[in-house]
Design goal:
This protein is mainly alpha-helical. The protein has one domain: Peroxidase, domain 2 (Orthogonal Bundle). About 40% of the residues lie in helices and about 5% in strands. The chain has a two-stranded antiparallel sheet with strand order 1-2.
């Protein structure tokens, strides 16, 4: 999709079980405010730079209306024309499964346009727009930088993905190296 490359360690062990509850409590929510996002990432040993770079992955993909409805109808830090555009496919009630691109400009290309969207108050998710509120917060300068310098974003994203890949590595008798990555051996 045009994004950067990074080294991926091979032979990593996978868990023999999965926990939906763990995933839901350890991953960031689309409704989180910036202090919660920062705390969540720091609890995993990731920095504010990692937070901003990794959320830049939202340059590709889509979200369900359920996750952005409150933002487009009730938040003030959203471009009014963008809110009106999104309201056409995500009504105040119903339509929970209607999809919208996380990055209107290039939802199928990995680039830095997501950050330009945030600078223009066109972040789809509350948690995304929290990265840039124009208040000189701890993430605003990174959003500005990435919106103007795709090379810096790509470099930081790659570094952050490698750090993310090194979290909670299973060793010894923990987990297994799967024959088929989609199911336990």
């Amino acid at each position: 999709l045009g994004g950067p490359f990074w080294d991926v360690a091979l032979g990593r062990r996978d868990s023999r079980t999965a926990s939906k509850d763990d995933a839901n409590t350890q991953l960031a929510s689309p409704f989180d405010d910036l202090p919660v996002l920062i705390s969540n990432f720091q609890s995993h040993g990731l920095s504010v730079r990692d937070l901003v770079a990794l959320l830049g992955a939202h340059t590709i993909g889509f979200s369900r209306c359920l996750f952005f409805r409150d933002r487009i109808f009730n938040e003030s830090n959203i471009h009014p024309l963008y809110a009106a555009f999104r309201q056409r496919s995500c009504p105040q009630s119903g339509g929970d499964d209607s999809l919208a691109a996380l990055d209107t400009l290039s939802s199928n290309r990995f680039d830095n346009s997501f950050f330009g969207e945030l600078v223009n108050n066109r972040g789809l998710l509350h948690s995304d727009q929290e990265l840039f509120n124009g208040s000189r917060g701890p993430t605003d300068s990174l959003v500005w930088q990435y919106s103007r310098d795709w090379r810096a974003f790509f470099s930081d994203f790659s570094d952050s993905m490698m750090r993310l890949g090194n979290l909670g590595v299973l060793t010894g008798s923990q987990g297994e190296v799967r024959v088929n990555c989609r199911k336990p051996n």
